[in-house]
Amino acid sequence: MSNIHAPNRNTPLAMELKESIRQDGPMTVQSYMGRCLWDPRHGYYRSQRVFGAQGDFITSAEISQVFGELIGVWAGVIWRNVLGAPKTVTLAEYGPGRGTMMRDALRASRVVPGFADAARVHLVEASETLIEAQRATLSDFSDRVTWGADLDGFDPPAIIFANEFLDAWPAAQWVKTDEGWRIRGVGLDITGELQFTDLDGDCPRDAFEALLPDAQLGAVIEAQRLDQLASTLKRLSERGPVVLLLIDYGYTAAAAGDTLQAVRNHVYESPLASPGEADLTVHVNFYDLASALHRAGLDLDGPVTQAEFLGAVGIIERASRLMSANPQRAAEIEAGVARLLAPNGMGGRFKVLAARSRGLPSLPGFRDPAADEPPGQARDAGR
Ligand code: SAH
Questions:
Q1: Atom of ligand 1 nearest to the CA of 95
Q2: The ligand 1 atom nearest the CA atom of 162
Q3: For atom 10 of ligand 1, which residue has the closest CA?
Q4: Distance (Å, whole) CA 72 – CA 301
Q5: How far is the CA of 95 from the centre of ligand 1 (A)?
Q6: Alpha-carbon distances of 33 from 11, 15, 43, 230, 303, rounded to whole Å
Q7: Residue 218 Cα to ligand 1 middle (Å)
Q8: Closest residue (by CA) to atom 16 of ligand 1?
Q9: What per-residue confidence (pLDDT) applies to 252?
Q10: Which three-class secondary structure state does DSSP give residue 114?
């Protein structure tokens, strides 16, 4: 599904960006990504494009209902065994998209007695268009759902989910040039079209040289601003116990690489091709993420791959039960689950990281490395 060489399109936002670059000069990649997603008039998340089968992204919850159901049961177990069954608990979600995962989670959460009555749902969403979609999806639960735009607009004890949320956070990039590391930006070529360029400005050159002494010309380093998320979790933790479950496309080792990508109508294209009309994302650096959360005083579980996490919380068992109960849908359920677990697809490329307020015990779903048996023994034991 690649259309990377298609010419740039003159979208309304492209015209505005070109005009502003003509007047004020090139902008950083981070500002470009921010404008493409959140421009007040033409930003991707302001529009209707993201909806339905015609939408650009299909996330795990939309591939299989089992995904949200497992998250709901997991949250119920956390409420009971980790938080000690408090009378009320906030189930918060950052960037719920169409609300599918929360709907499936709430439906399944009834299997943990008492949990559904204790749970208040709070959705953190910046897009008015998506809030409307979430309201429709969650209409059965409307008496206990609230919305807000702030990452900490709810009360602990809280269990917070974020699936494919951080990949939509604008990333800064730096590029290695023959003058050394420089900020990567977006400017205009001689025909007046958008093109990547490098910019003057402060750049941690020495640190980058030390990190990647052998980087080739054109190598890119990328970083998201994770301090806001980390400090939010720190503040929330000071008010009561918090558990955060983050799932995203990403990598776990420090590395160079340009992961900015654009998808429009399920087809990859250049991130400069359709400003405001394509979904722009980056891959999450879980090494940076884990470091930021740890520095903020949280304890961590994972990261593990999505396949490992879903396996540990019982995806096979749940899917089998669902297939027996709905034999006419068995093939569809099996195909969905296979897609979530595929080692070269979502199962391996998506990572799961949990963070918890200090003092809480480690969370289910993340294997304890100390409990690992040498390979072979586990198999012999028939597990
Ligand atoms: N979690 C959903 C949707 C992922 S799309 C799913 O898995 O299907 C990313 C979501 O994050 C959208 O709902 C988008 O509007 C929201 N979002 C991105 N950045 C945000 C921010 N800074 N504040 C609030 N919501 C944000």
A1: 11
A2: 1
A3: 95
A4: 18
A5: 3
A6: 15, 15, 10, 21, 26
A7: 31
A8: 95
A9: 85
A10: coil
User: pTM above 0.70?
Assistant: yes
- What's the gap in Å between 164 CA and the centre of ligand 1? 7
From 101, 123, 125, 263, the mutation candidate for ligand 1 (largest count of ligand atoms within 8 A of CB) is: 125
Can you tell me the distance from the alpha carbon of 354 to that of 300, in angstroms, rounded to the nearest whole number?
Answer: 6
Closest CA to 181 of 147, 148, 222: 222
Residues with CB under 6 A from ligand 1: 45, 59, 61, 95-97, 101, 124-127, 130, 163-165, 168
Residue 241 is classified by DSSP as -
pLDDT 10s per residue in the chain (383 long)? Answer: 445 566 789 999 999 999 999 999 999 999 999 999 999 999 998 876 665 555 666 889 999 999 999 999 999 999 999 999 999 999 999 999 999 999 999 999 999 999 999 999 999 999 888 999 999 999 999 999 999 999 999 999 999 999 999 999 999 999 999 999 999 999 999 999 999 999 998 888 898 998 888 899 999 999 998 989 999 999 999 999 999 999 999 988 767 789 999 988 888 999 999 999 999 999 999 999 999 999 999 999 999 999 999 999 999 999 999 999 999 999 999 999 999 999 999 999 999 999 999 999 999 999 765 554 444 433 333 33
**Domains in the chain, start-ordered, CATH in brackets?**
2-40+170-223 (no CATH), 60-167+227-252+279-371 (3.40.50.12710)
The residues, any chain, with a CB within 8 Å of residue 378's CB and separated by 6 or more, are: none
Which atom from ligand 1 is nearest to the alpha carbon of 124?
24
Alpha-helical segments (H) within the chain: 12-24, 29-38, 60-63, 65-77, 100-108, 115-118, 128-137, 205-211, 227-239, 286-295, 306-312, 315-325, 330-341, 346-349, 377-380
Residue of minimum CA distance from atom 23 in ligand 1: 126
CB 220 within 8 A of CB 258: yes
- Residue among 127, 138, 165 whose CB has most ligand 1 atoms within 8 A, to mutate: 165
Tell me the three-class secondary structure of 295-351, residue by residue: HCCCEEEEEEEHHHHHHHCCHHHHHHHHHHHCHHHHHHHHHHHHHHHCCCCHHHHEE
